[in-house]
Amino acid sequence: MHAFLLLLLLLSPLTNSFILPPPLQTFTPLFSKKIQLLISDTGGGHRASAISISTQIKNLDPTVECDIVDIYTTYCKVWPFSSYPELYKLMVTLFDGVMWKLFYEGGDTDPGLLFNQFLTETFCYNEFKTCLLRPGLNLDPSLKDGLEKYSIPKNGKPADMYVSVHPLTQSLPLKILGEEKRNVPFWTVCTDLGSASQSWFDYRCDGIVVPSEVLREKAVRTCRKFMMRDSLMMTGTPKQYETSNVEVIGLPIREGFEPSKSKSEYKSDLNLDPSKPNILIVGGGDGMGGIVSTANACISTLSDLSSVTVICGSNIAAKTELSTTHKTNPNVLITGYTPNMPNYMNSADLMVTKAGPGSIAEASVCGLPIIMYSFLPGQEEGNVALVEEEGWGKFVKDPLEIGRLAKLWLEDEEKLEEKKEKAKKGGRPVAARDIAKRLLEELENCE
Fold this sequence. Notes:
single chain; alpha/beta; Rossmann fold; 18 helices; 12 strands; globular
């Protein structure tokens, strides 16, 4: 009998599947390294930039795990740290941004920085430590079902590298990592554009990525100042900051904004008249910005001359009001939030927008002149100055004046083309990929 079974095993490869038990499956880690990206969801730009960087890292090296975490809302239990996104939205809308201006400018002073560091360390130290030392899952999400088939390690390892993509995720994490003797790279990717708080720039970072020369100069000044102060206090001897640690690479935006076909084709794809210019009016993605009055003024002034496309973001009330008011106008297109911003921007000849760093960076890649109608007091004033100095945009607050200026620009095709070329000159369409490459180089060098 035993000889008969042995003969069957030798003669039929199919027999194995019926007689032998299934082989023991051992879990094999998918990721050899882990990068933790620290953010807070105050506005949409920090997470968007972190996702852009993470996507490019995965494209370049699929063996590196990217862990994006809102360190405040995920870990901190004490107010106001646990409610930063809600407080941010309240302050930027309250009293036309005056509350935000006071908070921002006060926090950007040396005493303000020290006070914030004291509060964060007092109320968030253990929570930050838990986040920074948390292990990666090291597992493909597609394997979540049927995990009982695998032998998964009980203890993963903390990150091999940390990247801050927010101005308030530098100081305390660096302190904790130093005390834990975790000698791993810590980099900052600044997502402001023309002006930025000092809190972005900590001399203890191994590297700082900025999007503009203006911010490179500020980063060097800030790091030099605080390094000299701290070294004098600790050793009595001033130390000089290594300026090469600050690199101008660009603002990380997602792929797709660089034009891949003609403007007429983009217009046709959106059912816009290819023979007419198109003005694109964009409200804040989170619903902020006085888009209704601006859109009404532009439509009144321009809808006979051009198409007018209005993107209201998550401002449902604005979308409803504008759609009702202009539903019979064939030259007007109103929409809410869309994931298809590259196509809308590449269909436009001119954009009216808030002076947010992401919108400006995306417009530059598209070669799209802009009229800025709103900015966050204190934080985004430098963005306005940067665009105006480069000659491809202007800040105008009054809705009627915006309409008149837009009409003037669209009627002068030669000057509009000059502005488009100036916009393209500063565009960095592959900044996210370049940043990802730089981070991976640093990760490899630290082995």
